[in-house]
Amino acid sequence: MPYPFFPMMINLEGRKVLVVGGGNVASRRANTLITCGAEVVAVSPDFIDDFPAETVRVIRRFTPEDITPDISLVIAATNDRNVNSLIHATAKSMSIPVNVADNPAECDFIFPSLIASGHVAASVCTAGISPDLTRRLSDRLRNVWDSWVNNEGGKILAAMITGVMMILAGGFMLSGREAFADRITVEVEDVDCDFPAYLEDDEADSWREYVVKEGDTLSGIAESFGNITSHDIMRANGLKYGVTLKKNQLLLIPNDGGKIDATFDEVMRRKMIIAANMSKPIPLKVTAYTIQPGDSLWSIAMKHDIDIETLIGCNGITSSRSLIPGNVIRIPNQDGIFYVFDEGDNIAEICGRYGVDVDKFLSVNNLRNSPCIKEGEEVFLPGAKLR
Q1: What is the pTM of this model?
Q2: Is pLDDT of 174 > 50?
Q3: Which residues are CB-neighbours of 9 under 8 A, at least 6 positions away?
Q4: What is the b/e burial string over 159-186, where b = at least 16 CB atoms within 10 angstroms of the residue's CB?
């Protein structure tokens, strides 16, 4: 599974960048861009006192016309989710890379933690999944960076990595959404291994995979492996005290007490891959289903793995009594409802009303290249419920 972001360094000297927002996050983004030589235009109705003075400030609310063809990058850093989504949709429609501070899934690029000494730099990134791990890895790297760069061995290392290192952190799930769905957020406060371990290839003999069986307990699993404790398994898998194991849950079992940190690294790597995949929108596909005698809303929904609300919202059905054998209904490949655009509707407002991510809406409806919807046109609102 490829890493979702391609690591590269670009020259921003003299290039125009739009930052929308006037708070702390926007200020940090603007500072970073100015340091790299960009000409930053900032749009916001108000700015914090220490917002970079080198920016060109436009003191008003954002409008889509603020994104012009001469802009190289766009940063959405307001405290309004709907405004950030509108910024994202506008930038995407103009093929301008955009970073959305409050939603990594909408980012074409991200701001990594930067460690630099002269012309040698490294960036640490976890794709927005675990800022805590990014901070910890960055701090460890900063502690040794100058000494690496300033001695001959460090210079060789810096040349080998050609100025950029992407250090990935992730974790894992098994058997669909339920197995580790509530543990995508990575707990890293107990990680305590030397930084170079993160730069080494995973050791194939550090862990073994174990699929939880019905009735399994951590102590029983530890006893069956013989050379570790239940606490070792918990630390290696980032589990909390009192956790209830689920059937078909996948655990990585460290081969001994000295492999706990290496096992935890692998758990986190897998968890990040799963989190990235879960955020990817699925293109809409609709199939026709002919109602059979004895069908009910519940039985049809279960047969096609969708919510009853989705079935109702896609077909205007009010109850099982409306199901007439022989009639054909629409079955989407994901939960959500269909919506007919009315006069005055716009994408950001409709998505905000139904709690739908704008980027996901555009992807599912194949509107990325042309986010223009006419009155009377029907669209699909992924994940939305009837109102």
Answers
A1: 0.45
A2: no
A3: 121, 163, 164
A4: eeeeeebbbbbbbbbbeeeebbeebbeb
